[in-house]
Amino acid sequence: MSEGELRREERWLSALFFTLTLLYVTPFWSVHYLPTVDGPCHTYNAWILRHHDDPRYPLFQRYYEVNAAPFPNWLGHGVMALLMFVVPPLVAEKLLVSAYALTFLAGVWYLAGSVRPGGRWLAFLAFPFVFNHLFQYGFYNFSLSLALFPFILGFWWRYRNRPTSPAYVVGINLLLGLCYFAHILSFGLALVAIAVLWLATLRRDTWRNHMLHVPVLAPQGFLPIWYLTLEGGDSRASWWGFGYLFRYFVKLRTLWAFGAAQERLAMLLALTFFVLLALTLWREGLRPWRDDRAFLILAAVFTLLYFVSPEGTSGGTMLKYRLCLYPYLLLIPWLAPGCGPRWRRIGASLLALVADRKSTRLNSSHIT
Q1: Crossing angle for the helix pair 242-250 and 294-308, to the nearest 10 degrees
Q2: What three-state secondary structure class fits 202?
Q3: What pLDDT was estimated at residue 317?
Q4: Residue 365 gets which letter from DSSP?
Q5: Helices (H), 51-136
Q6: Closest CA to 273 of 325, 316, 219, 236
Q7: Which residues are CB-contacts of 223 (< 8 A; sequence separation ≥ 6)?
Q8: Long-range contacts of 97-101 (CB under 8 A, 24+ apart)
Q9: Phi, psi at residue 316, to the nearest 5°?
Q10: pLDDT tens across 82-137, in order?
Q11: At residue 215, does pLDDT exceed 50?
Q12: What is each CA distance from 87 to 25, 80, 90, in whole angstroms?
């Protein structure tokens, strides 16, 4: 393809992705209440935080104390509390979840373009992940951390050879700091992912420059060490047998929330991933090592983490449900099935159709 044709294809894909992204936000605004499990609790907590010093609510100061220690899970509550200075609580909640959806999809688009600029069409695979099981539970802080996760990896990848750039030093620490205050799981996994990518791209002739990543990222160790020292490292053993773990993973059951329609779409999406994986392995197996192959290693590492992790640790639970999401998302920037321009457009259109169907079913059957 000529450079002009590539630009036209990029514009077409960007327009389609942007349109579908807006469609994914509309269900939040089509109803009065968002039907999530824990969402109302988070909104109420943020409302208490907003009015804690309000003389109209004297009981708040009597029965609640604001703990300003740098714990994770502050981000969602803090953002909603600030928004409630200008908008009602229900609007603040909708703005928060809209920001989650927009950030998550933009992050996957950014990551895919950072690793393989010509493979951005595969970012359409991420749309069904927006309304995952954890989001339907109302785990807003975890959802925000999941949205920041691809941005962190994409940003690190773009600056992997420029660790002394002021933009990188400030940007990577800001993104990781926001991720920590959203949820410590995605924060920890982001550090693990950066470590794996760092090792996979280490070269004898550039190792001195590569080592500069260590002091840049060293400040990110202080808060999690403080938190884990405070919470302890007690873990809860998993009750899932290997057979159930395997079926949950290959069927992408973490995307099921309401019924058979989502089950079928999740299984179709998982099959699509496995087909694309097989095609890419066959194609890439004939080529020498490239740095972007580190994302395949990373997806394998995170798959292993899913299978060997406990059910909960340091006060957190439902690790398996959460960890099931990451290996699939990490494959997206590496997948390269070798499709030509026509097949890329067809593939993007089909993925957009599946994503639109998931959003439409959710909107018509469960939110309205």
Answers
A1: 140
A2: coil
A3: 81
A4: I
A5: 58-63, 74-83, 89-115, 133-136
A6: 325
A7: 70, 180
A8: 97/28, 97/34, 97/39, 97/135, 97/140, 97/143, 98/25, 98/28, 98/29, 99/144, 100/135, 100/140, 100/143, 100/144, 100/147, 101/21, 101/24, 101/25, 101/28, 101/130, 101/147
A9: -95, 150
A10: 999 999 999 999 999 999 999 999 999 999 999 988 788 899 999 999 999 999 99
A11: yes
A12: 18, 9, 8
- Let me know the angle formed at the C-alpha of 317 by 142 and 223, rounded to the nearest 5 degrees: 60
Phi (first) and psi of residue 259, to 5 degrees: 180, -165
Q: How far apart are CA 138 and CA 361, in angstroms?
A: 19
Which has the higher per-residue pLDDT, 51 or 259?
51
Residue bearing the bigger pLDDT, 367 or 225: 225
Whole-number CA gyration radius for the chain = 21
Q: How far apart are CA 28 and CA 368, in angstroms?
A: 10
- Based on the number of CB atoms within 10 Å of its own CB, is 85 exposed (0-12), middle (13-18) or buried (19 or more)? exposed
Helix, strand, coil distribution of the chain in percent, nearest 5:
75, 0, 25
3-state secondary structure of 310: coil
Instruction: Indicate whether 359 pLDDT > 60.
Output: no
* Digit-coded pLDDT (tens) for 181-193: 999 999 999 999 9
DSSP state of 316: B
How is residue 73 annotated by DSSP? S
- Contact indicator for 334, 292 with CB cutoff of 8 Å: yes
Tokens 């996979």, located at residue = 200
Instruction: Retrieve residue 145's tokens.
Output: 């951390």
Token representation of residue 329: 């998302």
How far apart CA 335 and CA 121 sit, in angstroms, is 10
